[in-house]
Design a protein that fits this description.
The chain has 253 residues and is α/β, with parallel strands linked by helices. The chain folds into two domains: 167 residues, Rossmann fold (3-Layer(aba) Sandwich), CATH 3.40.50; 80 residues, Alpha-Beta Plaits (2-Layer Sandwich). The chain is built from eight helices and eleven strands. Strands 1-11-10-9-2-3-4 form a seven-stranded parallel sheet, sandwiched between helices. Helix 2 runs parallel beside helix 8. The mean pLDDT is 95.
């Protein structure tokens, strides 16, 4: 895996951002730095300005684990597509299935909010309702490993059984039939009519995109884990602004 900002990395990126290209980004850990409390996260102004400029000439998509209602206020620009809940919300063609996803999540929440649930007695674990998925956050729990084991075990006893998506100190519970981020990107390529796509993400949930390995797609992972399927990498989230500057220069030529 080559550095995205190396000479060879930039040469590859240039092939995927010209003409009818779809530029897609995750939010947390990609556009917004990871913070202790997810509700405190924000996209820096300097990134907002650059993303707004890109929307004027390219098809821009945001594909995030956040619910759309949560993600939209974070954006100081208007992407053509805003996909939430790891792909379970907002994907063109999947609208009719959304009600089923919401019913499954509502049933899980009713169980998990019971007074006798063990996770409720563990300081630092919180449960987030995202309508089309739910999430256990355990960044504030100590030890984190024990908290993760607790919520993983509880999730395996839910009916219907959810798909578990591990993130940065978060365990996401998603209906098994719901599209993931890779499905979302593939659907957006078809819906938009774009000829190629460029995707930037940072964690396990983005591997569903990285693993697509479509000839028409190039991916960048931020500080990826060993074995990541990303095509290129950035060493940390702070380098995203440099990446956007390079992409902007390529488009302007």
């Amino acid at each position: 895996m080559n550095p995205a900002l190396s000479t060879s990395g930039l040469a590859r990126i240039r092939e995927f951002v010209g003409g009818r290209s779809l530029l897609a980004f995750d939010i947390d850990g990609t556009l917004a730095p990871i913070v202790a409390r997810p509700w405190d996260a924000h996209i820096p102004d300097e990134l907002q300005v650059r993303l707004a400029a890109l929307t004027a000439t390219r098809t821009v998509a945001i594909i995030t684990g956040r619910a759309i209602a949560d993600a939209k206020p974070m954006l100081g620009f208007s992407p053509r597509y805003l996909i939430g809940n790891h792909g379970a919300e907002g994907v063109p063609g999947f609208e009719s299935a959304s009600a089923t996803y919401a019913r499954d999540c509502s049933k899980w929440l009713e169980e998990l909010r019971g007074d006798n649930e063990a996770w409720r007695a563990t300081p630092g674990i919180t449960l987030e309702d995202k309508a089309y998925s739910i999430a256990f956050h355990y960044r504030q729990a100590q030890p984190r490993e024990a908290a993760l084991r607790l919520v993983e075990e509880r999730a395996t006893r839910l009916v219907p059984l959810p798909r578990l998506i591990h993130g940065n100190c978060v365990l996401n519970l998603v209906p098994r039939e719901a599209p993931h981020k890779g499905d979302a990107l593939r659907a957006l390529l078809a819906h938009s009519g774009c000829e190629r796509s460029f995707y930037v993400g940072d964690d396990v949930t983005d591997e569903d995109v990285f693993r697509l390995k479509l000839p028409a797609m190039l991916s960048v992972g931020i500080d990826p884990e060993p074995g990541s399927a990303a095509d290129l990498f950035l060493p940390d989230q702070g380098e995203v602004i440099r990446l956007l500057d390079e992409v902007t220069k390529m488009i302007g030529r």
